[in-house]
Design a protein that fits this description.
Strand order of the largest sheet: 1-11-10-9-8-7
Number of helices: 7
Number of strands: 11
Largest sheet: 6 strands, antiparallel
Radius of gyration: 24 Å
Order of helices and strands: EHHHHEEEEEHEEEEEHH
Helix content: 25-40%
Distance between the termini: 53 Å
Length: about 350
């Protein structure tokens, strides 16, 4: 029986702005005290968020503008960096400064979110990850033994070439990598609609036979983007498997991350992370692949079950913690009859929308 996770859910109420739409991606990311208003009376400063200069305040330096722009781009919700970039560019109002910020932020964002891009010529898809990064903007796809050239800002593959021998693991390591890749490919096809996976050699790619240690890295990325329905989400998991020949053991370390963003008439973001470990015996390539696949399947299924259990407890735990236990009116909130309240009506009245 899996233990329910304790999730932290942030619901941000963003004031109406003169310069940007209420549900602009920048306003979605903006911490509540800070505003895109030309005459803000807020004295609090946050180095990681925009605060438009007041008449009595000094202008931000170019470096500050670049750092702030990078922060917004890097903290974009899954699949929304292009929307955020449009507003960042408009606010910075300087193509040179924006391009400098974007050239740094986009590669980091693409790798951290492990986006999948289609390679030219119908060869297949390549995952943009630090594990497959070679030089410049080139990324290895171990399954097809091809290297893709990526335009990070446009998020497209511009070229592809066959991988060089020195960019690929030895035949001994490739035997284990290929067997594990096939097993993970089957698992992802069953568990994650539109999911993409890849298996890289993390260390010891030159191992020529038994007696040598090496490491394989399993990367699973699944995204579901539906901005027309005001929601986007992603699943990212990275599993490092150390093959220790001397002790005949395999050690697994997993890092799982789930991101979700729902922004219809509000703004709710979920960022859940989980780490786990496991181990098994060193076997043949086929048997090791099956065992590793079963371990990954078990841990990820348990984590998903924990998330579902946490969701079912949200009304009785998280949502109640969003307000005072006993408000200043000394009257408890009627949780048993919440239908009498209209969040949309109250927000509209509070912000003066539609006037």
């Amino acid at each position: 029986m899996s233990t329910p996770l304790k999730l932290k859910v942030k619901i941000l109420t963003v004031p109406a702005q003169k310069h940007l739409p209420l549900f602009s991606p920048l306003n979605i990311l903006l911490p509540p005290p800070l505003r895109f208003a030309p005459h803000s009376n807020q004295s609090q400063r946050n180095p990681t968020a925009f605060q438009m200069a007041d008449e009595e305040e000094s202008e931000l330096s170019e470096k500050q503008k670049i750092d702030i722009a990078k922060w917004f781009l890097l903290n974009s919700p899954p699949g929304e960096i292009q929307f955020v970039a449009e507003d960042v560019k408009a606010v910075v109002n300087d193509d040179v400064l924006y391009e400098e910020a974007a050239s740094v932020a986009f590669p980091l964002y693409n790798k951290s979110h492990m986006i999948s891009l289609e390679m030219p010529g119908g060869i297949g898809d390549v995952l943009v990850t630090s594990f497959g990064e070679l030089r410049g903007n080139e990324y290895l796809d171990p399954r097809t033994a091809h290297v893709a050239v990526v335009d990070h800002i446009k998020q497209v593959c511009t070229d592809v070439r066959p991988a060089l021998d020195e960019e690929l693991p030895s035949a001994y390591v490739e035997e284990f990598r290929c067997a594990l890749d096939g097993e993970i490919l089957r698992y992802v096809g069953e568990a994650y609609p539109k999911g993409v996976c890849s298996v890289y050699c993390g260390n010891g790619k030159d191992a020529e036979g038994p007696g040598s240690d090496f490491e394989l890295v399993v990367v699973i990325s699944a995204a579901r983007h539906s901005p027309q329905n005001f929601c986007n989400g992603s699943w990212r998991s990275v599993w490092s498997i150390e093959f220790k020949d001397e002790v005949q053991m395999l050690e697994l370390k997993g890092k799982l991350q789930v991101g979700a963003h729902y922004f219809e008439e509000g703004n709710v973001q979920l960022d859940a992370k989980h780490e786990c470990k496991d181990s098994t015996i060193f076997q043949s390539s086929e048997d090791s692949a099956i065992t590793i696949g079963n371990i990954i399947r078990q841990h990820e299924a348990e984590y998903l079950a924990s998330l579902e259990a946490s969701y079912s407890n949200l009304p009785d735990t998280t949502f109640k913690d969003l307000r005072r236990k006993l408000p200043v009116t000394r009257t408890l909130f009627p949780w048993q009859n919440t239908l009498q309240f209209s969040l949309t009506r109250d927000i509209t009245k509070e912000l003066g929308i539609g006037k």
